[in-house]
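Lay summary. Proteins are chains of building blocks that fold into shapes, and those shapes determine what they do. In this project we predict the shape from the chain. Here is one chain we studied, written as its sequence of building blocks.
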Amino acid sequence: MILKSDISSPNKSEIVPKIYSKLAFLGLLSAFLLLSLQSVFRLFPVAKLNGEEIAPQPMALNLASFKEGEWQKHQSMQSTRTFAFRAQCARIYNQLNYSFFGETTYFIEAGKDGYLFEKVYSASVCGENFAGHEKLTNQLDSLDRLDQLLKSRGKTLIVLLAPNKYRFFREKVDLDCDQEQTNYDVIRTLLDQKQIETIDCNRLFQDKDATYPLFSKNGTHWSIYGAGQVAKELQNMLVEGGYSDGVLSEQSIEMDEFPRYTDKDLHDLLNIMQLPPKETLAYPTYQWSGQKKPRTLIVGDSYYMTFYYLNLHETMFAADSKFFHYAKEQVGVNPKIGEPLTSEMIAAELDRSDVIILESNEDALSKFGWGFISKAVEMLESEPSL
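And here is the predicted shape, written in a compact code that computers can read:
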């Protein structure tokens, strides 16, 4: 006869750890499967990191690369850039550093009162990238020659100097500048001496009693509203020169506490979890009244992209006007579609355009025009028909 008390019952202290270990194993297995499936099939949409990131190209597997370990090293590097949820992990990591230690990225400076700055522009304010009088004088001599050649063909040249956020908010950052001379100061003086048509946004914004912010706290460029004010100044210049008869005016203005487009481009580059801080910004819609629009060629940088956001490129200029982005890529009506710039494209637009606008940010003044000026001068001098 077997008594109930003689039957050994399982010890609870032994069962619970086994259950937990199995659950932990299943959890790890599930996580591994999820990461594997997401990495291969991208089952869930995830927001990409902002900014440029060079992803390694696939490497062919062969005996030599495998034997030397190059293929394994390359695959390991590629997997760290492409594994599932990498962007989310990076944002969480960046957010913790930003919130607890005030760390940003190596190219963004966090100033006072929530102002963000792109560090590269501090060097131009402090003269750290000063190119020297001789180089700048040669550049402006070439620009003056281009101006003369265009005028002899009934065309006009306009220089548009984009504003530098550091110049307007020096009290928001700690800048220790040793160099007194800057590319901007020298070029600005030479432009005045040579009487080249110029819109200097540093001067324009300083003198302007603006109703709404000309810069956003979270952007590196002029604000969307600020770009519109520059466009109105440009339109007035085109009318005075007889190239246009239109009036550019605000049809409506929408206020928003959340920055749009490039008004938050520096915050986007932080790649953190939180939304950009609220600030009241203006977003105008423009209307143009007139009959005459100039065929225009714009050679410039990312500042000009704001004209596309406001539909000003097609509003102010004749159809098929072109934008030479950094003098490397030709863009038309759609800024997302571009093609590598060729000498044939440059010659064609010099021939067809009534107005040539050279726009530049302050950091790029040491290489003003990105090589376009000398090429244009050479073409116009060698081809009288252009």
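What the prediction tells us: Residues 12-41 form the longest helix (30 residues).
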